[in-house]
Fold:
Amino acid sequence: MSSLQKFFLLITVIALAASAVPGKATAGEARLLRYPHIMGDRVVFVYAGDIWTVPVQGGRARRITSFPEGLELFPRISPDGKTIAFSGEYCGTRQVYTIPYEGGEPRRLTYYPDVGRMPPRGGYDYMIIDWTTDGRILVRHNHTPFGKRVGRYYLIDPDSPGLPSPLQLPEAGPGSLSPDGKKIAYNIKSREFRTWKRYQAGRAQDVFIYDLENDRTEQVTDYAGTDNFPMWVGESIYFTSDRERTLNLFRYDFSTREITRVTSYDYYDVLWPSRGGDRIVFEKGGYLFWHDTGTGNTERIDITLGSDKPYTRPVYRNIKENIGSYTISPSGARAAFAARGEIFTVPAEYGVTRNISRTPGVRERELEWSPDGKYLLYLSEVSGEYEIWMRPKSGDGEARQLTTETDSWIMGIDWSPDSRKVVFTDKKNRLWVLDVESGKRVVADRSMVNGIHHYSFSPDSRWLCYTKRSEENFMTSIWAYSLESDEAMKLTGDYSNDREPVFSADGKYIYFISQRDFIYGDKDWEDRIYIGTLSPGIPSPMAPRNDEEEVAGEGGDEKKEKDEKVEIESIDAERFASRVVALPLEHKRYYSLSPVEGGILFI
Structure:
């Protein structure tokens, strides 16, 4: 059985046992509290998919829902403080329910099917928005012709449940009614579940006021970024905005039409705020805070949870479905897997599975086995942010941190063939080369329009080739970087999409994929694999063949010994494109080039 066959067999049958043991929280600490609402001295919130209540002064919270097979979300306390409206999954579909504040049996109010499961950024259907002064419930329901992620407002009367009554507005997000119930402050768009920091594009939110009696709309804010969760309190509208980078609470005053900053947080955003009377409650960093609009004071609500925390108990699980990344040792004797934040190594045939990280409170991801077989490279958040680490393959000995104070999300780590360098990119579109021994890193190149992808080392570890997008026309080209001279050079032009370059195993060529042929029948550009020589003196592998009789003793000096070390002294970048030819392959969609002795593997 080959190493490749063994690997795929491992993927099929591997069953890893992991003990998920969380870090211990400090006594009395309660975090991950979401979707709060306040009414007078009463606060309601969601923790672990259940609804809990607590006094605004804090203390021990009380769970009032406990259904194990579905979520209860978006609770809102009625103006009299006696009832909580919420969105629940009790019957295989999301619907609107009410429950007494002191607890009891939930009462179903809606029967129209929800839109079903959506991706996390799509959020949920049947979001409870507010209560009217006459005891009706304002709900955002995604029953629209525009798509299941777009919702509009409906009113539900708890005394006569059935079909909700739609409001005039065709589309709406978070909002709140005026004290007299005749107007509503709202966001037209909903983007609460899309965690786009400092977003300033088509789904940016502004605050509007809609007159329900006269069908008139007034725009309150026009900031290019996020102004959301408007909360009507007396003669002001409070809302959250990232106009100073972090989402904070702001106030719009009707009399002066001025906007004033209310909170001044610079780390965690103010999330999911809601108002009840003259008080506002919100989530920040997993904790709950309440704001008194009369005094301007903001205080944290210290909450203790008397929960058995079923999802934090140690358990044994088969985690073959949770593998996030993998790598194979150079000989194929073992494979390493990152699953549920831990690193495991697994034998190809005989032996035991080892957990070599044993950091249950920290996540490790993106594994790469060093070419010399000694180390595993990976990303870990043990320092608070993801950084590059390495540790011995056996798990014995201390892990070593290779990067510190990285100011951007790291992606795509890879070793050099000599195991002395590491290449990676980040979300600032930089291509980095890191020296393993010294920890020194340099920026090899940077793209101004998109990330740098598909990079690989030369066999002698002295060069990188990679794909970079043009600033002028957004086409991708092949580039090369010399680690010795710290010089980046462009190899192909801007008039075809070239990608996935790799050096040949003998260091003479660069293979890459390009879309240079327009197929009229398909009306589309198609891939082929191309090869280019690094210098004019290297014969093209696609040149016409011509057999000649070789005489003993002639030409022997020109032949390269099989075991001779590959060294690439220079690359003739200026005329590289003129030496590129296509391999004799069909027009297809090609991926994942991998050089081997005498040729190239691909998918």
The first helix runs from residue 3 to 13. Confidence is low (pLDDT under 50) at residues 1-27. The radius of gyration is 31 Å.
